[in-house]
């Protein structure tokens, strides 16, 4: 039996990172003796996708739908597959269909099964049933459509021992493609650091016990936090270094530091093994767990920057609306400690929640600017957007707060600059105006911080520009160095380690 696993091209949204979910599912299927082909469609045309599916002629097609803006591409691939052969079993999985299976089926009739939650063992059972000509309709963790009714089976229990999973099936991918593509991506600031041109993303834990109003992670990974052992993580990293010469890790956990002792053990093992890697946390960590010891150890173990998920600069909004359960005093304390340790920090903020006032949003911006000016914390502002499967979505639909026609293709521009929520307290114009104001002030503060740092640390800056000259004029082809990104990050941060 042949299984073709596809990541869609993502005309509405695309991440050039390695598709971990597809890699883990492929590894489980391959370990069980099945013939697995992986097709990362990248920016391929429908004609090329059609030719690829026809040539492979698989028995089962699995399509990843990690983000809601990818849905139109997923639907297009499913339609192409059914046009080629209506007997293909088409399975879709990922965060989006897990969050809203009924809506998913109502918008396409070309998908046979939706996998809800973790996909490794559910996909394996589907394939086993099909290969043995057994009915699959009773499998836990799936949804399907019978006539006009969407059937949602009981949820499959979460994987308790993550260490039982094999490493993702890296051997089925052209890994060099991902290294090349990420060097052209501007969404992460790591490329100012030597070695980060060979970076890969890892997830070392799953699930989150918190319940932020805007988050949809529970529909996939659940509320129970589970983690790989530190030994598994370090052995995984060693494998990547030896096999693919990895030099930088993006830890994309939703709660990397929840178990403080486990995280410390990971850092200790990195130092003991002298792995000489750099790493970051692009999805964010909780500020109230980061003490001075942890920050110093993180920097020593190769951390180039940490991201804090702050969300709001108004404590009442944080407590009652976002339900983050985070103290802003802890955020400021951590910011001060990071500055003392000379470890770069970023912070996520979100404005435009139902229940917020314009003054609440201004308080968030003022808090973000305070952290940036005093402690060099680079703020990232996003606009609250109702993702399917979240309580925020339910609130907005119930109260009619989505003021323009909702479509999945509008999610990315909404989050990044446009918004789509209006309430009795604010309009879209109000939110967009505050967002533009934020970008302007952030740029001014970054320049002021940079100039101030130059005057206070002339020797450091001299060495930095010598490094720039050496890299740019002597070894740019060897390192994949990007001058534009390097200069941008000199302003973005006060301290960039050479």
Describe the protein in words.
The longest helix has 29 residues, at 428-456. It is built from 20 helices and 15 strands. The protein has 498 residues and is of the alpha/beta class. The protein has a seven-stranded mixed β-sheet, sandwiched between helices.
Number of helices: 20
Largest sheet: 7 strands, mixed
Strand order within the widest beta sheet: 2-1-3-4-5-6-7
What is the strand content?
Answer: 5-15%
How many beta-strand elements?
A: 15
Average pLDDT over all residues: 88
Name the overall outline: globular
Top keywords for this entry?
20 helices, globular, 498 residues, alpha/beta, single chain
What is this structure, in a nutshell?
By secondary structure, the chain is of the alpha/beta class. It is built from 20 helices and 15 strands.
Layout of SSEs?
Blueprint: E1 2-7, H1 20-31, E2 35-40, H2 46-56, E3 60-64, H3 71-84, E4 89-93, H4 95-99, H5 101-107, E5 113-115, H6 120-131, E6 142-146, E7 149-152, H7 175-182, E8 199-202, E9 205-206, H8 218-221, E10 226-227, H9 230-244, E11 248-251, H10 260-273, E12 278-280, H11 292-300, E13 303-311, H12 315-322, H13 328-341, E14 344-351, H14 358-375, E15 378-383, H15 391-399, H16 411-418, H17 428-456, H18 458-474, H19 476-479, H20 483-492
Parallel strand pairs: 1-2, 1-3, 3-4, 4-5, 8-11, 11-12, 12-13, 13-14, 14-15
Antiparallel strand pairs: 5-6, 6-7, 9-10
